[in-house]
Amino acid sequence: MIISNIIFDKKKFIISFDNDEEIKISEDTLVNFGLYKGQEVEEEFVENLKFEDEKTEALLLSYKFLQRNKTKKQLVNHLYKNKIQREIIETILPILEEKKYLNDEDYARRYLNDALSIKKYGKNKTRYMLMSKGIERNVIDKVMENYDYELEYMNALELVEKRISKDESDPKKIYSAKNYLQGRGFEFEIINFTVDDYLSGE
């Protein structure tokens, strides 16, 4: 096969061959392969060219998407939405991990820090949110090894203070405060301990 023509059209280069076949590729792929008019190539080369061009496109999409901290699952879903083939995705994930663009453990540690310091979630909700973002269980367990239970208690206490007064005696209001903490992902043990601690004035 011989490249009979190369023309630019709407952000892509159209490569025409002498057998009337055409493919569209990016400028990066064109430069990387050093393509030129009159060049002779094998048929399997064309398939390789298509694959490499799709890989380049997928990497560019990934770099843009990963400008903000994301998980592997979030990235994969994004690529599928952009019609990137599974084979391409499986090819680029190791590249992105090696270049430190993807790191689920680092994401989980950052999320845990924000969950405690800013969002004031309890342990259960933090774990649930990490799982919903596609973080593997073993990674979550590893990150949770250094969980700050003292800060979690302080967060729970701060939230209780906003729901009931220290001399509250209405069981319904106390139950409502506990239910609120449960909704924010605190475990029953810390909920009961914090509310009892608060009401007793200790």
Written account of the structure:
- The longest helix has 23 residues, at 43-65.
- The protein has ten helices and three strands; from the N terminus they run E-E-E-H-H-H-H-H-H-H-H-H-H.
- The protein has 202 residues and is mostly helical.
- Helix 9 packs across helix 10 (188-200).
- Strands 1-2-3 form a three-stranded antiparallel beta sheet.
Write the layout of secondary structure elements.
Layout lengths: L2 E7 L2 E6 L4 E4 L1 H7 L9 H23 L6 H10 L4 H13 L5 H16 L3 H10 L4 H8 L4 H13 L9 H13 L4 H13 L2
Antiparallel strand pairs: 1-2, 2-3
Structure in a nutshell:
The chain has about 200 residues and is mostly helical. The protein contains 10 helices and 3 strands; from the N terminus they run E-E-E-H-H-H-H-H-H-H-H-H-H.
